[in-house]
Design a protein that fits this description.
Radius of gyration: 22 Å
Oligomer: single chain
Mean pLDDT: 94
Low-confidence stretches: none
Length: 404
């Protein structure tokens, strides 16, 4: 039997109950007809795409959004079953599904688990109801607790909780309270991000000086609500939150294995580690991105185009599911290997670099590595070049040094 190449799969479900004010992901509310139409097309895409990757074995699946759990149980389990039928999925593959509080029941969680999901990622963001309202979340902390308990009762023993710091009106004390409440629940994994105000979001209209509140997606009432939001924490407070996160989670037994991700030993997210270490991935669904055979491409982000395409016709398949097809050069692949790999606290393997590219890492990046070590931003340990604590603090600067 031939040795198959490893592949990760990302499945995008773009629907959500209401789009949050800070969110720049490809997501939107949808009616039942749109959801059924999308599910049908997604299953068709799975059949078409899986026929083209028979030389691969899938080592992880991540179903994200949007809010995947907003689909009906029947539709979601149909998607999961079609993945199993179409792809050669490793027996112990990590299969993650994102859910939001208030969108899961005991029955739906049982069905997800029976269909193969073995890891749940829950979007909490904050344990403070006022802060949740500022973010535009549809749930309270109490609703999160009930959903979390349902997840545990359904038998899931690998759970991630997403958190966001530096949100409007947040104080150092309220952020510490969120960390306390979440760690008391003992999830296996915590993703803790600092809020980024992205262009094109309602938050950009509120918090960026060059914005004139011109977002066409805002009603007058929504614009008024945005103006009434409290200010973001200042830069010093945001930095204190960052240090508090690192120290507090370490004290609670969570190892920081990536810039924004912490886990109990053995519960690192295998899917994300694959992204950061150069494993090939295939994106399924609206707008999803792929990286295969040294090429980057993505599916169309246009809903009607995605749902109406004749995927059984090769020309239309290529047009809709292979957009902005780009063959990376060896230099671009090495750059990506470095700036993605350095997100991991373990760092970049010198031997792995040789195995991947046939070049000694020092022959390619020796001058940059020496400069970063002299500045105290990187170190070489156990065969890995990694960021120091100070390097992690200014990681964007360090990573930019490896770009041509």
């Amino acid at each position: 039997m031939m040795n198959k190449k490893s592949l990760e799969i990302y499945v995008h479900v773009p629907f959500c109950a209401r789009k949050c004010a800070y969110c720049d992901f490809l997501s939107f509310p949808g009616n039942q007809q749109m959801k059924r139409e999308y599910t049908k097309r997604l299953i068709e895409e799975i059949k078409c795409q899986s026929a083209k990757v028979k030389e691969y074995q899938v080592i992880s699946v991540f179903i994200g959004g949007g809010t995947p759990s907003i689909l009906s149980v029947e539709d979601m389990t149909a998607v999961l079953h079609s993945l199993k039928e179409g792809f050669d999925i490793l027996a112990d593959a990590e299969i993650t599904m994102e859910v939001n509080p208030g969108t899961v029941t005991a029955e739906s969680l049982f069905c997800y688990r029976e269909a193969g999901v073995n890891r749940i990622s829950m979007g909490l963001q904050s344990a403070d109801d006022k802060e949740l309202r500022y973010l535009g979340r549809i749930h309270t902390y109490d609703e999160f607790l009930k959903s979390y308990q349902r997840v545990r009762m359904a038998g899931f023993d690998n759970v991630n909780v997403d958190l966001i710091s530096a949100i409007p009106g947040q104080t150092l004390e309220s952020w510490k309270n969120t960390l306390k409440k979440v760690t008391m629940l003992k999830p296996e994994h915590i993703s803790a991000y600092s809020l980024i105000v992205e262009h094109g979001t309602p938050y950009y209209d509120r918090y960026k000086e060059d914005s004139k509140m011109e977002s066409k997606s805002l009603t007058p009432e929504e614009a008024c609500c945005l103006k009434s939001l409290p200010d973001l924490p200042d830069e010093d407070t945001e930095r204190e939150m960052y240090y508090l996160t690192r120290g507090f989670l370490a004290d609670q037994g969570y190892e920081r294995y990536e810039i924004s991700n912490y886990s109990k030993k053995g519960y690192e997210c295998r899917h994300n580690i694959g992204y950061w270490t150069g494993v090939e991935y295939l994106g399924l669904g609206l707008g999803s991105a792929s990286y295969m055979n040294g090429c980057r491409f993505h599916n169309t982000p246009v809903f009607n185009e995605y749902c109406s395409a004749r995927l059984d016709q090769e020309e239309e398949f290529q047009k809709v599911l292979r957009q902005e097809f780009e063959q990376l050069t060896i230099e671009e692949k090495m750059e990506e290997y470095m700036f993605l790999g350095l997100r991991l606290t373990k760092g970049v393997s010198a031997q792995g670099f040789v195995s991947s590219f046939g070049h000694n890492i020092r022959n390619v990046y020796g001058m940059v590595l020496d400069a970063m070590e002299e500045e105290g931003l990187m170190e070489f340990k156990n065969g890995y070049y990694r960021l120091t604590y100070r390097g992690i603090d200014i990681s964007n600067y360090v990573m930019s040094r490896f770009l041509a």
